[in-house]
Amino acid sequence: MQIINEAASALDDAMQGIIMSYPHLRQVPGTRAVYDWRFKDDTVPLIGGGGSGHDPAHWGYVGDGMLTAAVMGPMFIPPTAADIVATVKTVTKQKRAFFIVKNFKADVASFGAAATTLRAEGYDIGTCVVADDISVDTGSLIPRRRGVAGTILVHKILGAAARHGADIPELRMLAAKLAPEIKTIGFSFSGAQMPGHDDYSFDLPANAVAYGVGIHGEPGYRVEPYTSSELLARELLGKIRQSFRWQAGDQLAVFINSLGGTAVMEQMIFASDVQQLLALEPVAVPWRKVGTFLTSSGMHGLSLSILRLSDPEWLEALREDVDVASWVN
C-alpha cells in the first residue's frame, strides 16, 4: 500500500508538503523546482535535479552550503529545459550558474539544452556530469556509468567551494578532479514502484538479491540467492576495489545509501560489515555517512559509494556544516 490520494496528483501533493515543511524553500511557479529564497546572489548558484522519485534528492539538498535550487520532472523523467531556464532566472540576476547533472541521456540533454539557451542570452553556465555507477550492462558487460548516489557528495563538496567564493572555472576544475574519484554500486531485493501501481519495475524470486540495480528501477547485472549482509558487502566492496585499485595509505570516504525501502537496522548492519572489511585494507576511512539520500521509489536495497580523498580539502568540505533538509551535520 502507498500513502497517496490520487496517483495523478502524488507529485504535486508531495511538493505542497515539501514547501510547507521547509520554510527556506520556495517553488518556482509552473514547475516542480524549489530554491532557497535566502540565497544572496553573491556566489555562483548550484543547480541540480532530475526525475522525481528519488526523494529526498534533490530538493533535500537545497540550502546554504549545497544547492541553490533543484529542478524535478515527472517520475524518473528529467525536467524540461524550459523549467531549468526558469529556475536559473528565478534565483540569480548575475547571469551565471553551475549545473550538477546525473549521467543519463535524457538528463544530460535537458540540462544541455538549458545551458545552450542561457548562454545565447549571455549567461555563463558551467556543468558537471556525474557518472559514479560502476555497474555493467547484463548482456554486453559495458559499464553503465550512470549518475547515482555519489552525486550527493558532489553537491556537498562543490557546495562548500561555491560558498567560499569559487567561480565557474574553479568549480569546473574541481568537478573534473572530484567526479572520477567517486565509485558507486548497489543491490536490491525488489524493483521500484510507481505511485498508484502495485507492480514493481522488475521481479525477483523469493530470497534473491539483484546486484548493480539502477535508481530508475533497472535490474542489475546478476541475481543470486541471498545469504548474508557480509556477502553483500564483500560483493560491492570487491567491485569498487577493482575499479579503484587503491594504494596503501589512501584515504577513503564511505557513503551508504538506502534506496528507499531499507530499515535503519539493515543499513547499520551493512555499514558494520563494510567497515570491518575496510579495516582489513591498508587504507584509512576518516569520514563515513549512512542514511537515505537518493532513493528509487521505495526499492528495498542499498548502494555503497566510495570517494577517494585525493585532496585533503574534500574531507574538510564533507565535514562542513550546511543548512538543508536532508543532510545531518
Describe the structure.
A six-stranded mixed beta sheet has the order 1-2-4-3-5-6, sandwiched between helices. The longest helix is centred in the middle third of the chain and has 16 residues, at 105-120. It has two domains: 7-180, Dihydroxyacetone kinase, domain 1 (Rossmann fold, 3-Layer(aba) Sandwich); 181-319, Hypothetical Protein Tm841, Chain: A,domain 3 (2-Layer Sandwich). It starts with 9 loop residues before the first helix and ends in a 10-residue tail after the last helix. The model has no long low-confidence stretch (mean pLDDT 96). The chain has helices at residues 10-21, 81-91, 105-120, 150-163, 168-178, 229-244, 264-278, 312-319, and strands at 25-27, 32-36, 46-52, 69-75, 96-102, 124-130, 182-188, 208-211, 222-225, 251-258, 284-291, 301-308. Helix 4 packs antiparallel against helix 5 (168-178). It is α/β, with parallel strands linked by helices and 329 residues long.
